[in-house]
Here is the input.
Amino acid sequence: MDAPFSIQWTHRLRFSVNPFAKHDVLDTLCKELLPIKILVVVDDGLAESNQAFIDSLHAWCSRTEQVCASPLVVAGGEKTKNSFDTVDLILEAVNTYSICRKSCIIAIGGGAVLDAVGFAASIAHRGVPIIRMPSTSLSQGDSGVGVKNGINHFGKKNFIGTFNPPFAVVNDITLLKSLPDEHWRAGLSEAIKVALIKDSDLFDEITTNADALNNRDIKAMESVLKQSALLHLQHITNGGDPFETLESRPLDFGHWSAHKLEQLTDYEVSHGDAVAIGLSIDLLCSVKLGTLNEDIASRTISLLKQLGFPTMHTELSNPELLLGIEEFRQHLGGRLTLLMLKDMQEPVDIHELDASIVRQAIAELM
Amino acid sequence: MDAPFSIQWTHRLRFSVNPFAKHDVLDTLCKELLPIKILVVVDDGLAESNQAFIDSLHAWCSRTEQVCASPLVVAGGEKTKNSFDTVDLILEAVNTYSICRKSCIIAIGGGAVLDAVGFAASIAHRGVPIIRMPSTSLSQGDSGVGVKNGINHFGKKNFIGTFNPPFAVVNDITLLKSLPDEHWRAGLSEAIKVALIKDSDLFDEITTNADALNNRDIKAMESVLKQSALLHLQHITNGGDPFETLESRPLDFGHWSAHKLEQLTDYEVSHGDAVAIGLSIDLLCSVKLGTLNEDIASRTISLLKQLGFPTMHTELSNPELLLGIEEFRQHLGGRLTLLMLKDMQEPVDIHELDASIVRQAIAELM
Here is the structure.
């Protein structure tokens, strides 16, 4: 017997500069979800750097009766994904406070915290609803908007995880104000990635506003990240493959080397920087494969540099970097499928990538 | 922005008495799925008791080039769900043998092994496809057919788990031949449960064939388990709530006390026996609540006894048993929703259950 069935989800993406204000986004989402209890989890990086936000969060917690405990502060950054510690902490809290499948976890922080907390939420009682509040440019424009979560295991990025659409994602652009420059700009490499594949107007906007973005113009950043988030969301919900069962992963353009470089440097290279380097490599590979005009590659690499991103790293000469191709293939499985660029908005899948091509590309960047 | 999207699944249920034969079910499923690699995992209870089956499995593995290693033997029974050991073992094998999302894990065993291996498969690389081969009457007629997996944590059954439809479920009735009597009959309490709620003809068939079932008539058992599996499958795929986001869980009739009794006895009481006891309690509660005719309750309890099931246990007088109601509520969350019976095929949801009613029902069984 073959019995087909389907599950419906709604991906809610909200923007607000004061989401905890009365009748603002959080109040509205809670009216819709009607959670029995609410557990709030906050990235320690945010908790330590943005007192105004923490104050407004505490005020909301005080007047929201479903909130069952003080916000739980967890370690931020990639290290939170390198062990089961954060996941265990969340599972213990779910048990202690009797958080159920009709309750809700609100996770506030960078992409790593959203990934680890999201994974814990997805396996507790087979799935407690989660509202994500990304606090970095990277997570607001890309990872926080997705349907994936995960932690690292066996030294491999996201070896363990699930696909689990959040109940909602809430982007508060003002959270970016307290970020150091490296994290302020981090989301721009992913925005450039999605612009290259899907939206040349966004690419032009980033180019035009590069100085404003460097000068931490919040309006300029808001416009870029909003478009980046919507492009990612549309790809997930309209791209025909939300849970990645097919071959192609266009949103992972430039990511095979980015993931490997992060691992080789023990995550000292941030994801935003690694993606800038990974994009540079794959753009030059695209040129060398004869599919891409050199002008687009050099314009993109210049733009990345102008925005303060590195486009090379000494570890690129580590022969182990090339293992990233096989690890990228293994994660999704099946035959190798890498995205290269033919032209702006014209991605093309390739199924092999010669090591000599990669070495030439890297040599050009070094 | 609200972006709705859906995921389609096909639930494949296959029956075969020689699934590893050439061109039989396993060959056909592999032709459909085209897995890059196959990892086979076997319950130690089955590996130790059914050499003929293990031989045919080994023969299939030898002639199937995708099989990447000798079948991995894991501990069977509920203990396999009481720690992370089995899950860790599978994750390590996934890493060692480079099992990817285009590969496949074939899990063969009782419900506990399918639950633990299924959970590991669902979180490795965010989900490696799994083919389940339930080897017990309980798992062939009920748990193996479902879309859930899980392990126990904090002393709570299935505290950790996911919803993850298997690629296919393969039921080989001949596997039941090597089971001890307790496991031979175990699936019948779940079959009686689903018959009470959905199919009075099946209830009559079990009643008529009680002696044959007691005498281990494989044809009689095959007919009952096939109907039970199909009723469970139809409920999941056509019941409108495959991932249990709503209030009602009709397939968990009688399960609040069953789960608690298993835990109170450190899983010495098997799930099949616990469900028989749990059904007896909730049938008598249904009578006491004035919703059910006494005749149906007493006929069912007699039938359970006739089939060799216990319908009482000394631990029923443990006051902690009643905590099972709150734990049942917590797992799904929201308000308490228990299923009681008004009549054959006429379930009714209730939202409170007075302890005195439960105590009276138990007193009648003791």
Summary: Chain B touches chain A through 57 residues (CB under 8 Å). Chain B is about 45% helix and 15% strand. Chain B has two domains: 12-178, 181-365.
